[in-house]
């Protein structure tokens, strides 16, 4: 007996298109293709498997990252470079259309839609080097960032906490791409424009889109004293302007697709959509596009990406707003600023990241106002119109406070034209969340993973983006003297000095001047390398006990005090870097003669007061 249900894939149900008889031209084309088929197709398959064996600098096994040879990180490892991406950020444009007391009816509808938090939480400033450095670590097959210690990604929990927009509800779906004629008809019906005005605007955009400036010029003057129809037109125009500046900001940088206007046909149903899931799918696709070397621009809602970086890497990039209260979206917790470091410097900083540098669960204090959403455990595909992206919480279990295990192989999303039943799959999301066995056990310390995880991750990932022979601060003669199996000496010195300075700063201003002077002197000795001689003759301090709880002074800033970080010895070093131009080993230069800085005695001279 035949089943009426379509076959199920890992990404959901895939519909089967009805069979159609081929035309005469299609039959002739098939005959031509058969004539030019190679005689030995098996030989071509062997060559493809040979290409997928590995890549310079990793991954060794490309069973996961099959398209890595097109990735920007592969080009960087081979010596090519790409400038920081141009960012599409409309945070300042939102201030050009304000909903004051004269437009209270429009604001009430926007508030019922669940999109009102976007008006206030959008960042006006975005850091090009920081976002570009993280974009270089995005992998399209896994939809995660590949960092030195494992994978991380933006989850539905992150979207809900950072933006406070709904992540449950109906999926945003479009049956087919919108044509220009249909876009003109929507503008006339839902915005009240004339045929001439609609045609002129779409012709100027050369696509079924309208300019953001055109929306402001034609609808921002409507107030509460206008007619009901005009207020509805202005409300739809404002919502289209809002999502065009935030959730669905594309690389046109000036326009928004008219296709989203269909979502605002019934203003009472706007709040029933899963806007957060659609925003996340759109952001995934923009990051995927920007990983290609020839792409020079990054779209999507950059406030979401930037605030996610601030939340999970607070010591490296963030500048907190001390007036923030937990009832507001987490995007308002941070003061956005441009990172002064260059893109190459940020690449190297990310290459040196350790597990203890990450705040794995940053929303612990936010749970009283915004509880954890169970839909964040959904494993399947998320959708924004014709954009379908896989969502893999099993690859980032540490962000949920669970021990990371080796995840199953990622699944490819179904084609948009064959994902008619994907909406039903999403509506039954409670049947497709990770079961308790797949979630694993809770972490004993933040960032914990099983013993075999890092060995597996080394084999399938590209952990280091900046090649060792192209790092800043290294000369040609000193390249071959660096050990290939561990991080460089300079990297370890920087990490030790930063750890010391963080300890001093966290102690506050109540510490004595002598303590500050001694700490600064010790940090100077570490960076200068003059502490190695004295350290080799001194008695080493006892190693910290396993799973020991650090003191409050040594905890990272802005992380909840309940987090316990693993001992430094448990963090694996970066993988061995392969120098494409090996040379004979060069002995390191001998240390300079004379007393070291650690044995120097500073004497303060006293002048006699003249009488």
Major sheet? 3 strands, antiparallel
What are the segments in which pLDDT stays under 50 over at least 5 consecutive residues?
1-19, 29-51, 474-488, 532-606
Distance between the termini: 114 Å
Number of strands: 11
Summed up, the helix count is 21
Structural class: mainly alpha
* Secondary structure: helix percent: 25-40%
C-alpha Rg (nearest Å): 28 Å
Average pLDDT over all residues: 79
Overall geometric form:
globular
- Taken as a percent bin, the fraction of beta residues is 5-15%
Strand order of the biggest β-sheet: 4-5-6
Brief characterization of the structure:
With 611 residues, the chain is mainly alpha-helical. It has 21 helices and eleven strands.
Please characterize this protein's 3D structure:
The protein is mainly alpha-helical. It has 21 helices and eleven strands. It has helices at 24-35, 41-51, 72-77, 104-113, 117-121, 128-135, 156-163, 180-191, 195-205, 212-219, 228-245, 275-290, 302-312, 314-317, 343-351, 422-427, 436-439, 453-460, 489-506, 513-528, 531-537; strands at residues 8-9, 12-13, 86-87, 138-139, 144-147, 150-152, 209-211, 255-257, 297-298, 380-384, 387-391. The strands form five sheets. It has a three-stranded antiparallel beta sheet, with no helix packed on it. The protein has a two-stranded antiparallel ribbon with strand order 1-2. Helix 6 crosses helix 15 (343-351), helix 8 (180-191) packs across helix 9 and helix 19 runs antiparallel to helix 20 (513-528). It is globular and about 75 Å long. The termini are far apart.
